[in-house]
């Protein structure tokens, strides 16, 4: 009796679901859609906003770089800007290194 029990269980098991492949494809599409709306779309939106901010930089804007240096834009070039961080102290940084444009007068109040 104990020898025939595994054979009976093995024969009684179903061969597999007929729609298993379709449900797996639907699951993968749903997962990709969730990843797109939760990760990819917000990142591209932030990149677009950053590109617009960098393109709108002008002389006199007060900015903060990725390194945390705050200063006033003195000169705008093709891919670099000159930032005055103190009286007669100017540094040249890439435009992409600007993380934030501050409201006018922020540096005087700090």
Automatic annotation (TrEMBL):
The keyword Nucleotide-binding does not apply. It is a single-pass membrane protein. It comes from the Bacteria. The keyword Transmembrane applies. The chain crosses the membrane at residues 22-40. It holds the Pfam family YajC. One of its GO terms (biological process) is protein transport. InterPro entries: Preprotein_translocase_YajC. Keywords: Cell membrane, Membrane, Protein transport, Translocation, Transmembrane, Transmembrane helix, Transport. It is found in: Cell membrane. GO terms for cellular component: plasma membrane. Its main location: membrane. PANTHER family: SEC TRANSLOCON ACCESSORY COMPLEX SUBUNIT YAJC (PTHR33909). Belongs to the YajC family. This is Sec translocon accessory complex subunit YajC. It comes from Rhodanobacter glycinis.
């Amino acid at each position: 009796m104990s020898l025939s029990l595994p054979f009976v269980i093995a024969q009684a098991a179903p061969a597999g679901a007929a729609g298993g492949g379709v449900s797996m494809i639907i699951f993968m599409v749903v997962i990709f859609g969730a990843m797109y709306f939760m990760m990819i779309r917000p990142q591209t939106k932030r990149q677009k906003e950053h590109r617009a901010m960098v393109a709108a930089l002008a002389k006199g804007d007060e900015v903060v770089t990725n390194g945390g240096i705050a200063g006033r834009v003195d000169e705008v070039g093709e891919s670099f800007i000159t930032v005055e961080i103190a009286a007669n102290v100017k540094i040249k940084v890439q435009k992409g290194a600007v993380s934030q444009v501050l409201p006018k007068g922020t540096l005087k109040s700090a």
